[in-house]
């Protein structure tokens, strides 16, 4: 499910409402330093037909044109969301694009939030961290509590370190949203003690202002992946709910 435009939507997001998307990656390909078994965009190897990244100038022009169109239509949006076909912070102009987006948001739709969906692999880069600190919703992913388990579900590029990610996220001092996918595959189960206990320990260490727990909702490149029900996820995260963590749960009813 590749996005064929740099600015797309608005679409209805389970987590962010009416969302205008921004894809900072190729429009006819996929670019990511994860290769998640559940990615709706498919495997990395199947999305390499295009390697051209949009420039900051193109993003600004396309976004301004779209925001002007929505304003003239009277269409309201809840979020301007960086998602797209892979990891948005891989675009080398990401910090400048965030600055431009915040400026245009303030000019055309000041009530909308600016959100970034990221796998958190580049939060340790100073310019990326500073850019993420400026947006309303830095939504940063941890699906597994150890490098070994992340290798099973996220299949990251060489050099990934969950400890480095955690240490970088600690710099937010809790002012971020933690996003976690709950699923069961042939060799990974979010409900197993080795995953769930380790993940909850990370949550307690980072103390994010909000947690988004969700499950698969679209076809996945790896087959035979099971989604979790809302009731099951509520049961799994109950210790954290009892401790006062704010958790938004999206899944099968």
Indicate the topology.
Layout lengths: L6 E7 L3 E6 L33 H18 L5 E4 L11 H15 L4 E6 L7 H9 L2 E5 L5 H7 L8 H9 L6 E5 L2 E2 L2 E2 L3 H14 L3 E5 L15 H7 L1 H5 L4 E4 L3
Parallel strand pairs: 2-3, 3-4, 4-5, 5-6, 6-9, 9-10
Antiparallel strand pairs: 1-2, 7-8
Helix pairs in contact: 1-2, 2-3
Protein described:
The protein has 253 residues and is of the alpha/beta class. The two termini are 24 Å apart. Helix 1 packs parallel to helix 2. The protein has an eight-stranded mixed β-sheet. The chain has a two-stranded antiparallel sheet with strand order 7-8. It has one domain: TIM Barrel. It contains eight helices and ten strands. The relative contact order is 0.13.
What helical percentage do the residues reach?
A: 25-40%
Strand order of the largest sheet: 1-2-3-4-5-6-9-10
**SSE string:** EEHEHEHEHHEEEHEHHE
CATH top level is: Alpha Beta
% residues in beta strands? 15-25%
Q: What class do helices, strands and sheet pairing give?
A: alpha/beta
- In the predicted model, the low-confidence regions spanning at least 5 consecutive residues are none
Structure described in brief:
The protein has 253 residues and is of the alpha/beta class. It has helices spanning 56-73, 94-108, 126-134, 147-153, 162-170, 193-206, 230-236, 238-242, and strands at 7-13, 17-22, 79-82, 113-118, 137-141, 177-181, 184-185, 188-189, 210-214, 247-250.
